[in-house]
Predict the 3D structure of the following.
Amino acid sequence: MLFLALAPLSTDFILFNLFRYITFRSGGAVVTALFICLFFGPAMIRWLKRIQGKDGQPIRTDMTDAHAIAKRGTPTMGGVMILSAFTISTLLWADPRNGFVWAVLLVTAGFGALGMVDDWLKVSKRNPKGISARQKFLAQMAIGLVAAYWIGHLTRGPLSDTVAIPFFKDVLVDLGWGFPIFAMLVMVGASNAVNLTDGLDGLAIVPVMIAAGCFALIAYLVGNTVFANYLQLHYVAGTGELAVLCGALIGSALGFLWFNAPPASVFMGDTGSLALGGSLGAMAVATKHEIVLAIVGGLFVLETLSVVVQVASFKLTGKRVFRMAPLHHHFERKGWAEPQIVIRFWIIALVLALAGLSTLKIR
C-alpha cells in the first residue's frame, strides 16, 4: 500500500523515491514486522494463555523426561503472532499489483490456517495428534496445487513448467503437466520439514530466518535482468518483489524469537511451522530455485530424513537407528543440553545456507 500511495509522489518529493526501491522496502518490512511482534507480542501471549488454560501445549506421550515436563503450560499457536506481523508488513511494503506476492501469501495463510485448526484441536481435546496426517496432507496438497498453477501462470515462457539445475547455467528439465505436482510437493515437503524441526526452543525459527535471508537475495537477483544476466541465472520477471516478503518474514521471525528464546514463553505450533515452511517452498518455486532450497534448508532435510530412516528401519527390521526421531531428540537422549543442540544446529543451518548461495556463482 505504501508503494502505491507514496512512490507516485516522488516527482514532487524526492524522498518518496525511496519507495521505488525493493531494498528500501525490504528493510522497512523487516523493521515493521519486528515492531509489530515486540509491541503486540506480550498481549497476544496473555490471550493465548487465557484461551488455552494452564496446560498449554500438549506434550507427546513418549516425552516423559523432566526437561519435557518442564515445558508444560507453555502456550502454543504463537504462529499467529508471526503470521499477523508478516501479513501486515507485506501488505504495507510490497507492491499489491504483483501476482507472486499474492501466491506466496495464499500458501502462507492457507497452511497457517490449517496449522491453527490442528493446534486448536490439540489444545481443546488435550490430544497431541490434532488433525490426522491424511487430512492434513490432503489439505496441504490442495492449497499447494492451487498455488503451483498460479505461479506457473505468472511465470513467462519456457520457465513456467521447468526446473533449473544448480551449477549448470543452461540446464532446464521440462516437467510439462507434471510441474504443478512437483511444485506442490516442494511446498508441502518444506512445510512439513520445518514442522518436524520445530521441537526445541528457537531451533526452527533461526534456520527459517537464515533461509529467508538467502531467498531475499535470490529473489532480488533473479528478478533483476542485470544481475540475472551477469550471474547467468534464469530471469523471472516480478520475483524481485518477493525480497520484501522475505524481509517481512525475517522481521516477524526475529520478533517471535524474542519470546521463543529459551526458556520459551510461547511455541509457534503448527500455525507457524507449517506456514513458514510453505512460504519458503512457494518462494523457491517462484524463483526457480526449488533444488537450492534443499541445500539452503538442508537442516530441515536432515530432520525429515531422520524420521524417514527411523520409521523405515523399524518397520523393516524392528530396530531403531536413532534413540528418538526427529534428529534433535536423538541428541537430547544422548544427554546434550538443549542450548547446545540448538546452537550447533544453527551453525549447521548457516553452513548449508552458504553452500546453497554458492550455487548462484558456481556455474
